[in-house]
Amino acid sequence: MREEQLARDALDLRRRCIAGEAPAALAPRAWHLVREAAPNDGPLEFDEADIDLAVALTGGVVLHGGSRRGPERMRSVRLLATFLLALGDQGVHVIAPGESQAAQEARITGPVLRKLGMSVEVLAPDFQLSMRQKAYAAEVTFGSFDQFAHDQLRENQRTTVDESFRRGSPAALVIEINHLVADKVADAQVLTVLREPDTRILSGLSRFVESLERGEHFTVGPGPSVWLTPSGRDRLHHTFGTGDTCGYQAVNLEVRAQQAIHAEECARLGQDYDIVDGAVELTASTTVPEGLAYSGGLRQAIEAKEGLTISRTEWVVGTTTVIEYLRGYRTLSGTTTARVLTAQELEEILGIEVRDLRGDDELGDQRSKQNAVEERLLKVLNVYDWSRPGSQWRAALNDYREQVVAANDIWTLVRDITRWPGGEARKENATADAVVEVGEDELKEGTRWSFLSAVDQAVMFSIAAESAVRKRYWPADHSGYLAAIETVHSNIDQELKALLLGNLPGAKGG
User: Fold this and answer.
1) pLDDT of residue 244
2) How many Å apart are CA 154 and CA 317, to the nearest integer?
3) Residue spans of beta strands (DSSP E) within 384-432
4) In which element (H, E) is residue 86 found?
5) What is the pLDDT of residues 170-195, one digit of tens each?
6) Rounded to whole angstroms, what are the CA distances from 507 to 156, 319, 441?
7) Under 8 Å between Cβ of 171 and 91
């Protein structure tokens, strides 16, 4: 069949899809078109019996193929499902555990989809905004999980509609979802920015920790990990005049104090680090944790201890987990042939149906390892439960941020803010006087920027606070953690509302 005819037939299927025909009705013809568009000697294996499996994927399930259906068969099922999902106008994200797998899937199935009139793009880490917008505007976008997750965090940081690159409400089809979830479930994806340090606080803490006694005011565990005792916390907050000990500023102060203790008690000059040209350089044998743990505050604590110029701190401004990210799609489906996680585990973790296509021999091997399976599942769900309150709170905050970015009438959002507790007192004089003094467009954009800055600060504060509070209660006291984190979120809410109200046009103080 000529490519022109293939494209015309695919267009006819698109019209039928838009008219409301279900994937099951479109699938037989779609299967024939996909098979015709695929090379005869390529690495795709087509079996008409797989049509129903592809239709199932369009509805949001995971297919656990095992060894009976190898990677080639499962790829063909994914290809047909991708084509059926892309007939709509919301887009499809084909997500792989790594960049090489995403590139391979795109190299094999991308040409088939293009012959059928689909626009296809592959994400790359070095994309500029225009290239990223083009990739996400395609009907089918291939990429690694890390790339998709980080792009979502970047999207949450945008300040104008023009900077947006994620389209509509796409469906997700995940390659080897088993491996992806097992490998990433305990790791958060983070987005960071560099901020100027508060040198006064850091220098003060460096002097303060010299007066503390190990055992009475703090303990040092394996890792090493530093913990303030109740006596140490009381002394810290009394010394620095902390008011609300559950507020963000108090939690942040405790984190900084623990880093200062680590720098004083655990990091040794000449053993863990050297000073070269006025800068701290870790040695090959260092016990100091590297990466974000180091650049996010510990390095600055060492610099304060040594009397050096304090460098900028790397703050986390966005975070997501594999479970949180995947559950955000309107339709989530995937395939796997791996034995890493069982069907039961995937259903519990992802909250969607898993169809197990494996034979009795493979299932028997799985049942023999049931105790290990249940123990691993408990750990996975425990990690998810501890991260869920913060994820839900930030999701609501990001929804509000999206409204601020997209709003044509910023004053509607201003009026919404004034309905919060404490806002009515500012409502009467919130806008009128200020509009006289500056142009209305300038005022709107100034208000928009101040609102976005306040929301971004709240997100950043919440991430830091949750990390600190989690360390205090993990892993034994989940109920204590929930109560503490609810208080932290409530306090940040109040601080955010006060900051937003203080930024309203015509507001006095606040």
Assistant:
1) 67
2) 10
3) none
4) helix 71-86
5) 999 999 998 888 788 777 888 888 88
6) 28, 33, 18
7) yes
**Strand order in 61-64's β-sheet?**
120-122, 140-144, 92-96, 171-174, 331-336, 61-64, 353-356
The whole model's pTM is what?
Answer: 0.79
The dihedral formed by the CA atoms of 94, 100, 101 and 105, expressed in degrees to the nearest 10: 70
Helix, strand and coil percent figures for the chain, each rounded to 5: 60, 15, 30
The dihedral through the CA atoms of 178, 181, 182, 184 has a sign that is positive
How many other CB atoms sit within 10 Å of the CB of residue 355? 13
How far is the C-alpha of 46 from the C-alpha of 147, rounded, in Å? 30
Whether the Cβ atoms of residue 57 and residue 335 lie closer than 8 Å to each other: yes
What SS3 class is residue 417? helix
**Series of mean pLDDT values for 10-residue runs along the chain (510 residues):** 86 94 96 93 84 95 80 90 92 96 96 95 93 95 96 86 80 92 81 90 95 94 82 92 72 88 94 95 90 89 96 88 88 85 77 82 59 63 82 84 74 56 39 37 63 78 81 86 89 76 52
Cα 465 to Cα 389: distance, rounded to the nearest angstrom = 12
Q: Yes or no: say if 145 and 96 are a contact pair by the CB < 8 Å rule.
A: yes
Cα separations in angstroms, 83 against 43, 113, 167, 267, 336: 18, 7, 18, 56, 19
Pairing of strands 61-64, 353-356: parallel
Contact between 175 and 95 (Cβ < 8 Å): yes
Write the CA distances from 464 to 22, 75, 190, 248, 255, integer angstroms.
46, 41, 12, 8, 9
Q: Per residue in 145-182, is it b (16+ CB within 10 Å) or e — as a string?
A: bbbbbbbbbbbbbbeeeeeebbeeebbbbbbbbbbbbb
pLDDT value at residue 363: 63
